[in-house]
User: Fold this.
Amino acid sequence: MSSNVEINEFLKILQSFGSTSVVQWILRVLTISQAVFQTGWPENYEISDGERFDFIVVGSGSAGAVVAARLSEIPEFKVLLLETGGDPPPTSVLPGLSRTLPGTKYDWNYTAVFDEGVGQAHPGGYMSYPRGKLLGGCSSINYLIYSRGVPEDYENWNRIAPGWDWETVLYYFKKLEDMKDPLIFEHPENARLHSTTGPVKVSRPKTPPSTALIDDIRIQSYEEMGIPRVLEINGPEIVGAARPHFNIYGGRRSSTAESYLKPAKDRTNLKVAKYSTVTKVLIDPGTLRAYGVQVYTSSKTYIHVYATEEVIVSAGTFNSPKILLQSGIGPQEELSKVQIKTLVDLPVGKNLHDHQVIQLNYKGKRGLETALQNILTAFQIDTIPSPLQIGFFRVNGSEFEYPSKLQPHFQFFNSYYGAGASEDLVSGCSLEKDFCLALGSANVNNELDTVLLALLHPLSRGEVKLRSTDPLDDPIIELGYFRNDYDLKVVTEGVKYMNTLINTTYFKEVKASIPKLSVTACENIEWGSDEFWECYAKNTVLSVQHAVGTCRMAQDGVVDERLRVHGVARLRVVDASVIPLIPSGNTNAPTMMVGEKAADMIKEDFHKRKKENNKDCPGETVL
Ligand SMILES: Cc1cc2nc3c(=O)[nH]c(=O)nc-3n(C[C@H](O)[C@H](O)[C@H](O)COP(=O)(O)OP(=O)(O)OC[C@H]3O[C@@H](n4cnc5c(N)ncnc54)[C@H](O)[C@@H]3O)c2cc1C
Assistant:
């Protein structure tokens, strides 16, 4: 038994002793030490040129790790999982440190560009767009918020790609979930949406009374604005606000590396090759059948490994289209620009969409008491220490009928900063210098609420393209925000509505105000006018890193409803890139759900093929 397992067992015993503060502290120290002295990740497998497997999965992220782990449940399947990155570091495991990961070696460090006249408050006209480069992919570096979207999101998928209706996907959402919050099961309407039997842990960590009060005041304010207080953000309501659930349990991040790959690490039929970058899919030009992949290894050589059954590309919204394009699958017009011969002409890289967000700031109470809040939270690295409230709402008006009334227009993330967190705010601010400095100044003596207002259903689309034929070159990411005027109209309405927060009881009591942050592009517009907020939104726009859609699942898309690439046999894409329409919430859980459903479809199709060929059917009973 490894020391990690022993510590885990000990932690479980301690947890059963309840919540005295001494036990809490012992737990905290042990959890942190367990994250720092890591063991338990799958061992690295050194692949050799010419090796054969049944299934090759490219990328171990939110979807890829799920697919590889589920396929390897069938002992007869030989599965290879290829991943560019390595093991998650302690900063990934400990939830309170998640914000330190973007920009490090655990991030692909991509930059994404705005169209002319958009995002002008971003120096250089581009912004960093983090993507996890490690076991678990983005699920190992994200902000751990657990949100699934609403039923109508999936009914819409189902209209485009049959088989993805709400009741079907709910089965997979429940299959992946281990809900640790007992409160949910006290309410039948909520309980039916959740499960305790899946591998991914979900909890709402307890907060100290001072933090709970801050949460409560904000949720009360949103209630006054007409956004109801709800039990949870994955409940039966379409709109409402609550403290969110997180993919955290026992002080650890429940990434797909933690919840799927660790438990599968001793299976001899699953090999995990780290530091291995897939540069293209090998496709027979005569039969158009995928038969393997080209890999750039840690020793800087290119090798080939072969798949007798299927290649599954799960490299994420930017890298999956890149790999397909490098393999000759994509728009002929784009491929010819970089002199790649087109094998199959498909809209790869198109349909990029995202939850673009507008950061709004509200300056509140003055004084030492709120500054103390920052000190209280600083040591709680085994949880999400800062107060955070999440809500969903629709704006009124017959001109805002898209999306349907069964979906919210906006999601918002309200973070609270006690006075004096300015340095944090300034260093985390990527906009023009004067804007960031003014943001910091607003918080020197006063608490500050920053609200990230996310447009949930944009009509604008961007695109991912190849920069060159060099497979190690970063792709071009054109965000395409606000290409459709409707998006800016809805966003401006949402911003104006959100600004009424300062008219609610608490914010009025503390004489809250909206700090005047300078945006050069809007200098000549009257501050606070509708025109100003439109300009502010267009130019300070950010992202919550929910990019999807570049290998769209649709008849006229890149993959069919079983995620098979149109026109190419034995090749699937399984990750956020297949999402045809972005859901009303964060994208990690929906992507894990896609992985779960895909694994079942791959197993089914394998058995179907074997039956057709009249051969033995290993593992059929598993289904
Ligand atoms: C900073 C940040 C915060 C976020 N916060 C949240 C949140 O709080 N809640 C939420 O629900 N969602 C959040 N998201 C979004 C969510 O995590 C992603 O939508 C989701 O994880 C995407 O999963 P994926 O499987 O498509 O891709 P990924 O998880 O990115 O997986 C792709 C994997 O493939 C590997 N890979 C890529 N190219 C290659 C190659 N050529 N060869 C081999 N391996 C390769 C990558 O290294 C990576 O491990 C956040 C994302 C980020 C980056």
The longest helix spans residues 588-612. Residues 177 and 509 are 42 Å apart (CA to CA). The radius of gyration is 24 Å.
